[in-house]
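As promised in the previous annual report, we have extended the structural survey to additional targets. Below is the entry for Glycerophosphoryl diester phosphodiesterase membrane domain-containing protein.
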Amino acid sequence: MNDSPGRAVPGPSPSDGERPGAPDGRDGAAEGAQAPAQQPPAGGPKWSAEQPPPGEWSSPGTPQAPQTPQPPHPQPQPGAGWGSYAGPRAGQGQYGPYGSAGGPGQWGKPPAAKPGVIPLRPLDLGEILDGAVATMRSHWRSVLPITLVVATVVQVISVLVQKYTLSDLPVTSAEEPSVSDVVDTLGGSMLALVANGFIQLIGTIVATAMLTMIFSRAVLGHTSTIGAAWREARPQLLRLLGLTLLLGIGGVLLVGVLIAPGIALGNIDLGLLGGCVALPLLLWLGIKFSLASPALMLEKSSVATSLRRSSRLVQGSWWRIFGITALTGIITTFVAGIIVWPLTALGVAIGLVDAGATGLETGAVMNGWAPLILSAVGAVIAQTITMPIQSGVTVLLYVDQRIRREALDLELARAAGLENYGSDAAAPPTGG
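The corresponding structure token record, generated without further manual editing, is:
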């Protein structure tokens, strides 16, 4: 019988096997050949041969194999996504140049997810500074009490040391002090200064450790109480102290080695040359290891491992990290100066009224209670504001470098509860 118009000639087609009630008289071999293509692969979706090579992200115009529904990712425990680094996951590459053009028909990348204070993508300078300030503003109940307590304790001890120890140093005197008097006075003052410096170091380490935990939670959109931050930071405090002492002592030894030949030979020019070499070397090492503290706290690593991690993360981005760190230092110094200097000037004016003009010669103006207390109040306010900004910028620089190099944004998205984040390519906008 002739085929009537509009009817297809019976024969095997890829859609026959999917229609209910299809004819049964098909070739068994053809049916068997099609069966494997109809079955989804066991164990969920796998990376296919069409997967782009590492280091690239697929665009919407790239042909892809048919996708099967992906099971939701299990919810990680709080704080997940940081862990010790074991290399990028399979299929996760590094970010290329941000903002590159996409494939045919692409309307641009959709806005990055922002579960917390930063978007989950490579950050620019403004986003890093804004993230630090936003965390201090939105989580002030946790951030400000930590820095306020630490700054207050440190400044109270500093005032007591300066009032009862440094005030004993002779400034001017009608009688020439004996050598033993000078040695005793300087010895006691140096001991008090060392003790004061150690207390300041301990306070700074505790504040830095707890603030690091708070900022890491803020990135995920989670809040953290002071007690929770303390419990998370406490196991790593001794290691953070060791890291800080190692970097400080190492810097002192480096400077000593470079200027020692000039001192030993009595050659001032050689000593100055050693100092000129030491300063840029210290700066380079300081930036190179600037991310060791957040790496140690968030990855629960050792001192040596955190130094290696910082060196690896900073590699290739030294100038960028240096610029952001230097700008942050300039901003915080300017803010601190605005707060401290007016109170210090007021204290000096009160001291001049109490001690008279001779107080400047004897040092009584600066050693009076009014200038010491007002200066300490200004320092407490300044440190309460600037310490979180400095700590936050360091933590966000660490997060940014890991997003750029290790696709940490995928882990952070899962930790924040964003299912299937980054699993599919961006689709063009719908609705028109």
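Residues 125-232+315-415 form one domain. The chain is about 60% helix and 0% strand. These points will be discussed at the next consortium meeting with the crystallography subgroup.
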